[in-house]
Design brief:
This protein is α/β, with parallel strands linked by helices. Helix content is about 30%, strand content about 20%. It has one domain (about 5-265): Rossmann fold (3-Layer(aba) Sandwich). The strands form two sheets. It has a nine-stranded mixed β-sheet, sandwiched between helices. One of its GO terms (molecular function) is transferase activity.
Length: about 270
C-alpha cells in the first residue's frame, strides 16, 4: 500500500504531536503509512501525487480570512504551499481530507466565502448529515446525527458553487463538503477526543478562542458532552488505501516508496 501524507500546520509541539497521534489512532495507520510533514517548519516542496494513497491536512491556529498584512511570513508561505498543492490535487481528484483549517483552505481555493460570520466556540456540537452526506462513502460512515468537537473563529459562509455540502450544524451552515468525488473538508475535528481537546485548550488558552479564565469550564463541558470520535477518517483511509481506487492508477498495484520526495520526512 502506498502511504498517506499528513500535513500539519501547528507551530506548537505539544498540540502538533498530539494531533498526529490522534490521526494515527483514527485512521488505524502507523507512522510508516501516515507520513507527517510539518508545513510551518519548512516549505512543502514538490509532492508526487502518484506516490500517495491520499493526503490529510490537519487544523491549526491560522485563519485564511485574516487580513493579509496581519499574517506572519510563515502563515503566508503555508497558504501559498497549500494553494499550489490544491492546484494539482483538485483537477486530478486526488483523495484529500482537510480538517477544520482544511475547510477554509479548500473552500477559499475553490471560490467559496470564508469569513467570521459563523464562528463556533470550543466544545461539542451536533453535526447533521445532509441527504448527500448520508449517501457519501466517507461521511456516510457516521450516523446521520452525531456529536463532534469544534472551535473556530472563521468558517465557510458560502460554499463553492460546485461543492456538495455533506453536513451542517446549528451554528455553522457548512460542517463538511466535497468537491469532485474524492476531495473532502470538514469544519469539525474528526480526530478530536476529550484528551486532545484538553491539550489544545492549554496550548491556545490565550489565543482568543475562549476566556482564559474559563478553560476549566470548557474542558468540563467537553467531558460531559459524551462526544465520541466519528469514524470518517477511518472510512477515508479504508476507501483510498486500495491503490486501485487512486485516480490515474488502474493497475491495482502500489507505487514504490517515494524516497527523496517530501513525504519521506519522518513524523
Amino acid at each position: 500500500m502506498r502511504p498517506f501524507l499528513f500535513l500539519g500546520v501547528r507551530p506548537e509541539d505539544a498540540p502538533a504531536d498530539d494531533e498526529y497521534a490522534a490521526m494515527l489512532r483514527c485512521t488505524g495507520l502507523s507512522e510508516s503509512t501516515l507520513r507527517r510533514v510539518r508545513l510551518e517548519a519548512a516549505p512543502l516542496g514538490d509532492v508526487d501525487l502518484d506516490a500517495w494513497s491520499g493526503i490529510v491536512l490537519g487544523g491549526g491556529p491560522f485563519c485564511v480570512s485574516d487580513p493579509e498584512d496581519a499574517k506572519s511570513p510563515v502563515q503566508r508561505r503555508v497558504e501559498a504551499d497549500l494553494a499550489r498543492l490544491l492546484d494539482a490535487v483538485v483537477p486530478a481528484d486526488v483523495p484529500f481530507f482537510g480538517a477544520c483549517y482544511g475547510i477554509g483552505t479548500l473552500g477559499r481555493h475553490q471560490g467559496g466565502v470564508v469569513d467570521r460570520t459563523y464562528p463556533e466556540p470550543v466544545g461539542a456540537v451536533t453535526v447533521e448529515l445532509t441527504p448527500a452526506g448520508r449517501a457519501d462513502p466517507v461521511l456516510g460512515s457516521a450516523p446521520a446525527s452525531f456529536g463532534a468537537f469544534v472551535g473556530h473563529k472563521e468558517s465557510l459562509a458560502v460554499p463553492p458553487p460546485h461543492a456538495v455540502v455533506l453536513a451542517t450544524s446549528a451554528g455553522a451552515p457548512v460542517q463538511a463538503f466535497r468537491v469532485g468525488r474524492n476531495v473532502y473538508a470538514t469544519q469539525f475535528h474528526p480526530e478530536l477526543d476529550v484528551a486532545g481537546l484538553t491539550t489544545r485548550v492549554e496550548a491556545y488558552r490565550y489565543d482568543g478562542y475562549f476566556d482564559p479564565a474559563e478553560a476549566a469550564e470548557v474542558v468540563a463541558a467537553a467531558r460531559e458532552s459524551g462526544v465520541q470520535v466519528p469514524g470518517v477518517l477511518r472510512a477515508f483511509v479504508d476507501r483510498y488505501a486500495d491503490a486501485g481506487l487512486h485516480p490515474g492508477d488502474q493497475s491495482g498495484t502500489s507505487a514504490p516508496h517515494p524516497r527523496g520526495e517530501i513525504g519521506a520526512a519522518q513524523g
